[in-house]
Amino acid sequence: MSASSEKPVKKVVLAYSGGLDTSIILKWLQTEYNAEVVTFTADLGQGGEIEPARAKALAAGVKPENIFIEDVREEFVKDYVFPMFRANTVYEGQYLLGTSIARPLIAKRQIEIARQVGADAVSHGATGKGNDQVRFELGYYGLEPDINVIAPWREWDFKSREALLDFAEKHQIQIAKDKRGDAPFSVDANLLHSSSEGKVLEDPAVEAPEFVYQRTISPEAAPDTPTVFTMDFERGDPVAINGVAMSPATILTKLNELGHDNGVGRLDLVENRFVGMKSRGVYETPGGTILLAAHRGIESITLDRGAMHLKDELMPKYASLVYNGFWFSPERNMLQAAIDYSQDKVTGRVTIKLYKGNVTITGRESPYSLYDQDLVTFEEGKVAYDHRDAAGFIKLNALRLRVAAKRDQRSK
Length: 412
Known about the structure:
Distance between the termini: 75 Å
Main location: cytoplasm
Subcellular location: Cytoplasm
Structural class: alpha/beta
Helix content: 40-55%
InterPro entries: Arginosuc_syn_C (IPR048268), Arginosuc_syn_N (IPR048267), Arginosuc_synth (IPR001518), Arginosuc_synth_CS (IPR018223), Arginosuc_synth_type_1_subfam (IPR023434), AS_cat/multimer_dom_body (IPR024074), Rossmann-like_a/b/a_fold (IPR014729)
Protein name: Argininosuccinate synthase
Number of helices: 13
Largest sheet: 5 strands, parallel
CATH architecture of the largest domain: Alpha-Beta Complex
Low-confidence stretches: 1-5
Number of strands: 14
Binding site for L-aspartate: 127, 131-132
Radius of gyration: 26 Å
Mean pLDDT: 93
């Protein structure tokens, strides 16, 4: 087995979950590179305990001062999830980018820790077939252009899962009993979503079994009475539910609970990976699905038509940048500036109804509303709109169509 890093490595910051794969990577970095390993474990709201990662890192010989375990849920939602949702971001018409948006934050903290401890390399556990390797490494290079990146899955000589498990046993890395068999599918999770891929999900013609779903009950099992609540927005971001002010992570947590209980946010998708292949995944984004609908609801009365339509034109480009890992790119920052400018008056309250997997916006109000009842009413009374003005407007807009139609008639 040989390492392919171009530079000698003395200290490396590893994105470490404490699971089997990153535990193997930790030991591999120690044995293959003879490097001092620094671990970074992020609590992104994935669920379960992350503190056991400390004991596992200590058992692997990592110095206590080189173990970083951090709760980054508030930063994740405030500085990554909310800015993305200001753009109403959806990839390929459906995917709310739950995995994609978490990678820049992890990459940023790894680079910050590398600077803090004087590390000369960073490492991640993403495979050579997926998008995450791109997202991590574009993040690293965008923040620290000369950093040395170690991607074990692209470097090591393990030819099979069995070889990995044998390496783990040789180095006394704890293996859960079910790891010797084939896992039914792999799961990635954070506060925004959970994603499931592989194994029982690889055939896109076969419906995903119910046990795949992590974050939602089925719509069929949801209550027969709807759940109705309000959400308040300030400058494009949610700030309160049912009038109770909450922090960003607390709001998303509450929306996740409401979505879970009403079967909201399931998605079975075949998507186009950045690396060129198609993949099938099952995604659950209960809170994000509600947030997207609510944000579009408050925008519907506060955004000018031109601004709203331009945002909708920019969104697919923004979504592709996030999906492909270009969070720290100049163009994403440019788009973010335009999007954030549009949100200055996106303030107010929406009323939301959840029922058996559906999200319906039933009310919207704002001190900056552009909705003028006098303009749209069918009742005569206040002179706010002269119907006769429409004739000239229509004729001017029809001029080019009439010219083209006359030309076509002459050519027949």
